[in-house]
Amino acid sequence: MRWILVLALICCSLAARADFDYRLEPRQIAESVWLLEGSTDNFAAANGGNIVNTGFIVSDQGVLVIDSGPSRRYGEALRQAIARVTDKPVLKLLLTHHHPDHALGNQAFADVPIAALAGTTQLLAEQGEAMAENMYRLVGDWMRGTEVRLPTETLTPGPLQVGNRRLQLIGLRGHSGADLAILDETSGVLFAGDLLFYQRALTTPGTPGLDLWLADLERLQALPWKQIVPGHGPLASSAAPFKQMRDYLGWLDGVMRDGAEQGAEMNELIRTPIPERFAGISLSRYELIRSVSHLYPRYERARLRRVDR
Ligand SMILES: [Zn+2]
User: Distance from the CA of 197 to the center of ligand 1, in angstroms?
Assistant: First the structure.
């Protein structure tokens, strides 16, 4: 009898966890600007892939959404969360870049233009299927029904008027090869996409180079922002995320540059001690291992080229 009770309790708790509800709670961060903040963990069945920040801006004409999240289910939950805040229609979805946590909720926005930089559409077309497959492996059933849906509108960097809101679209490429940052001029909120990670180790698959990424950060920091929404990590109203990113990128670049100089092996580099000042940054060891495997061969080749010359 006792066993039956225990089994029933286990079943109940499993069912409670398996309701696949992201419980999205939009938080107002400025007048008519809302943030949905994800965790700074890695993709896992426990979070359904909700490790990402998405947001939306409510203009007098309707809603502009920034990123669609990691799955169809997330995209649908985002639509419902928006509808709880405003009865204005969704006008458009803007994608900051093509990575799975930002663009696999697109199906829920099939009724509105899905707008992205040309490079983002191309990269999603090339890599979307493999990224979606990987997400199914990582977070399981949360992904059910998720399919890649490509953008339907190409964005050009520059001003974008949406109802009474004027936005600046900034086209960069340091994180993924095609990265869009969005500055809402009315509120001064900067949606930096994954050009900025804060308190969470940055990811490097697809970066054209850490030097380009650093240059992008300089451009972003010079904008007239008042608050910064990083792609991952907490909202900030100071330049702290920029400072941390520059410090971290410089360290990562130095580890690989020095390693290549000294002819170090990859498996030595991935054991490099993480500096104490990065102790508060989540997943730094995990991402160091990934970054070294993505990027170190480039540093080794660059070193070889110099020797040959
Ligand atoms: Zn991301």
Answer: 8
